[in-house]
Specification:
heterodimer; A: about 0% strand; elongated; B: alpha+beta; Thrombin, subunit H; 3 domains; 6-stranded antiparallel beta barrel; 6 helices; 12 strands; about 30% strand
C-alpha cells in the first residue's frame, strides 16, 4: 500500500523539480529528462507492468501540464516503462552501470519519437540539426544523471520492499496462529 | 492487481496503448481535454512550483548579490553576525527590490499603452520539453486569462496564451515553433509574419517570412505588430531585423529577427486581456 502513494509523490516531486530547478541548470540549452530516468529505472526494478504504469502516470502528468495533445507523453512513458521492464528485470539490481546504458538508449529513442511527432510530420526535416542541438545533448545530460538517480530510486525501492515484506510476514504469522 | 495484470500482459499492453491513442484523438477536438483532472492536479502542482521558483529566485538573488557587490556582501555578513533579524530583513528587501524592478517595467508598459487592459503575473515554471519554448504563469481562467491572449514582457511582445486552466496558464513564447504574429516594419511599412523557428531559437532569434522581394527592409529595422494581426493590438514592439536573405523562389525574402522582449524567461509578464 505504501508503494502507490510513494511513487505518486515521486512523480509529482520530479515534475516540479523538472519544471523549475532543472530549468536553471540547462547545459547547451537543454535540460535532463529525469522523468525518463525514473521510468526506465522503475521498470528495471519492478518489471514491465509496474514500469508501464509508472510511465503512464509520469507521462500523463506531462500531458496535463505541457502537452499539446493529452496522451502523447503517456503513451511514450507507458511503452518505455513496459520495454524497460521486459528484458532487464532479472539483471543484478546493484549493477548501476546497466541503467546508464539503458537510459542512454531509451533517451535516444524517446527524443527521436518526440522529433517525429512534433517536427518531422510538420515538414521540418533538418534531422542532423535536431540531433546535434537537442537529441545528443539531452541524451548525454540525461544519461550522466542516470546512475545517481537510479541509486536514489534503488534505495527508496529497497525501503518499500522491506516494509512490504515485514507487513507480509506479519499477516502470515497471524494466519499461522 | 499487478499479479492479475502479469497473467494478461498482452491484453494490458494493448489496452494501455489503445487508451492513450483514444485520449490523443479526443484531445484533438476542442473542449475534449480532461479539464477536471488538469485542475485537480494543478491544485497540488502549482503551489509546489510557486514555492520551488521562489526558492530558486531567493538563491539566485543571494548569488547575484555576491557577484555584483562584494563589499555589500561583507557588510550584510557583518550585520548578520550582529543581528540575525536585521539580516533577514535585508534579504527580504532585496527580493522586494527585484520584484519592484519587474513591476516598474510592467507599469511603464501600462503607461505606454494606457488603453490596453492588462494584468501582471509571475512566471512559475518552464515546459520541461527541450523541443518547446513555453513557460507557465501563476494565473488562470479565474483571473481572467484565456487562450490566445497576448503576453508582453519588457515593453514588447513575449508570446501568447496557449492553454489556460483555472489556476495556471501556459505561454507559447516567440521562440516556440507554434508561435506566429503579423508584423509591420516601422520604417518601410513592409508587412510579414514573424514566427518561432527551433533552429534560430537556440540563438534567441526568430524568423520573419512573406516579405516581398521588392521590399526595402534592412538590418536595424524595428518591427511592430500589424493591424492584420487578429490577436495582437497594433503597434506593439516585436523585434529588430538582424539580417535579410532572399528566398530561392526569387519572389520573397525572409529576415532574421531579434525579439524585443529578449529570449530569456522573465520573472513577471503582462497579459493583455479582452477589450482591444
Amino acid at each position: 500500500m505504501l508503494r502507490v502513494p510513494a511513487m505518486t509523490a515521486l512523480i509529482i516531486i520530479n515534475y516540479v523539480l523538472q519544471t523549475t530547478v532543472w530549468q536553471e541548470m540547462a547545459i547547451l540549452g537543454v535540460t535532463p529528462d529525469t522523468a525518463l530516468i525514473f521510468i526506465v529505472s522503475y521498470g528495471m526494478m519492478r518489471g514491465e507492468i509496474e514500469g508501464a504504469l509508472f510511465g503512464l502516470g509520469a507521462g500523463f502528468l506531462m500531458d496535463l501540464f505541457g502537452g499539446v495533445y493529452v496522451g502523447v507523453y503517456a503513451l511514450l512513458g507507458f511503452l518505455v516503462g513496459y520495454i524497460s521492464g521486459k528484458p532487464f528485470r532479472d539483471f543484478f539490481k546493484d549493477n548501476f552501470f546497466l541503467p546508464f546504458f539503458i537510459v542512454l538508449f531509451a533517451t535516444v529513442l524517446y527524443q527521436l519519437a518526440l522529433y517525429v511527432i512534433n517536427f518531422m510530420f510538420r515538414g521540418q526535416l533538418d534531422f542532423w540539426f535536431y540531433v546535434h542541438s537537442i537529441i545528443l545533448p539531452t541524451t548525454v545530460y540525461t544519461a550522466v544523471l542516470a546512475i545517481p538517480l537510479y541509486s536514489l530510486l534503488h534505495f527508496f525501492n529497497r525501503i518499500i520492499e522491506e516494509f512490504e515484506n515485514s507487513r507480509r510476514q506479519m499477516f502470515e504469522e497471524k494466519d499461522d496462529d | 492487481m499487478v499479479d492479475f495484470l502479469q497473467r494478461r500482459k498482452r491484453t494490458f499492453l494493448f489496452s494501455g496503448m489503445f487508451l492513450c491513442l483514444v485520449a490523443i484523438i479526443l484531445s484533438v477536438f476542442p473542449g475534449m481535454r480532461p479539464t477536471v483532472a488538469e485542475q485537480g492536479v494543478a491544485l497540488v502542482i502549482v503551489p509546489m512550483q510557486q514555492g520551488a521558483t521562489r526558492s530558486i529566485q531567493w538563491i539566485q538573488g543571494r548569488f547575484a548579490a555576491m557577484a555584483d557587490n562584494e563589499r555589500l556582501l561583507n557588510e550584510i555578513a557583518a550585520l548578520r553576525a550582529e543581528n540575525d533579524k536585521l539580516a533577514l530583513q535585508i534579504e527580504q528587501l532585496y527580493l522586494a527590490g527585484e520584484e519592484n524592478y519587474h513591476l516598474t517595467g510592467l507599469l511603464n508598459m501600462r503607461q505606454r499603452f494606457p488603453e490596453l487592459p492588462t494584468i501582471g503575473v509571475r512566471v512559475i515554471s518552464q515546459n520541461p520539453n527541450n523541443w518547446r519554448a513555453r513557460f507557465t504563469i501563476e494565473a488562470g481562467t479565474r483571473d481572467g486569462i484565456a487562450i490566445d491572449m497576448p503576453v508582453l514582457s519588457g515593453e514588447a511582445v513575449k508570446g501568447i496564451i496557449g492553454y489556460a486552466s483555472t489556476r495556471h496558464a501556459e505561454v507559447i513564447t516567440m521562440l516556440d515553433s507554434d508561435f506566429s504574429v503579423a508584423v509591420r516594419s516601422v520604417r518601410t511599412e513592409t508587412d510579414g509574419i514573424v514566427r518561432g523557428d527551433i533552429q534560430l531559437a537556440q540563438q534567441g532569434l526568430v524568423r520573419m517570412d512573406f516579405i516581398a522581394a521588392a521590399a526595402n527592409i534592412m538590418a536595424g529595422d524595428l518591427l511592430v505588430t500589424s493591424v492584420y494581426s487578429p490577436l495582437f493590438p497594433p503597434g506593439l514592439p516585436v523585434g529588430t531585423v538582424v539580417s535579410v536573405h532572399p528566398n530561392p523562389d526569387g519572389l520573397t525574402q525572409h529576415a532574421i529577427v531579434e525579439p524585443a522582449a529578449g529570449s530569456a524567461r522573465p520573472q513577471m509578464v503582462l497579459v493583455v486581456t479582452e477589450g482591444y
